[in-house]
Write a structure and sequence with these properties.
This protein has 140 residues and is mainly beta. It has one helix and eleven strands. The two termini are 28 Å apart. 13% of the residues are buried. InterPro entries: CHP02241 (IPR011747), Phage_T4_Gp19 (IPR010667).
């Protein structure tokens, strides 16, 4: 039996309604926040009720070196000009051998921004792109 290291994720995939937008090597912002409302109960001074009110989800930021899959991202963003459709998405974390560590389903996904590479011959760094997406929550 081989043991797989759960912390050795090196890339992520993003799929929109089942169509892959390629591999990314950075993913930030997979998080949610539950807002809490405090209520005091009359005659009970021992504690304060902590009641959940609203769940919010942060913007997810995916980064990668420039690849031919960039055209898939551009096509998705351009499709918003003909009407906003909020699809579902899947982000999967993969190990070096391609096996899956974890997967997150996202509801009502929308691209927030895309930043392409800075092409400067005086600074020969890796050309990278950044895609930011928003969503209305997690799903299976």
């Amino acid at each position: 039996m081989s043991r797989q290291d759960p912390g050795s994720t090196i890339w992520f995939t993003l799929s929109i309604d089942g169509e892959s937008l390629g591999y990314f090597n950075g993913c930030e912002g997979l998080s949610s926040q539950v807002e809490i409302e405090q209520r005091q109960e009359g005659g009970n001074n021992g504690f304060v009720w902590q009641l959940p009110t609203r769940v919010s989800f942060s913007t997810i930021r995916l980064t990668r070196p420039l690849t031919p899959d960039t055209t898939k991202v551009a096509k998705w963003i351009s499709s918003l000009q003909t009407g906003i459709k909020r699809p579902t998405a899947q982000i999967a974390a993969l190990r070096a051998d391609g096996s899956e560590v974890a997967r997150w389903g996202l509801i009502d996904v929308l691209p927030v921004s895309w930043t392409g590479p800075s092409l400067d011959p005086a600074n020969p760094a890796v050309a990278t792109e950044v895609l930011e997406i928003t969503h209305h929550g997690f799903t299976d």
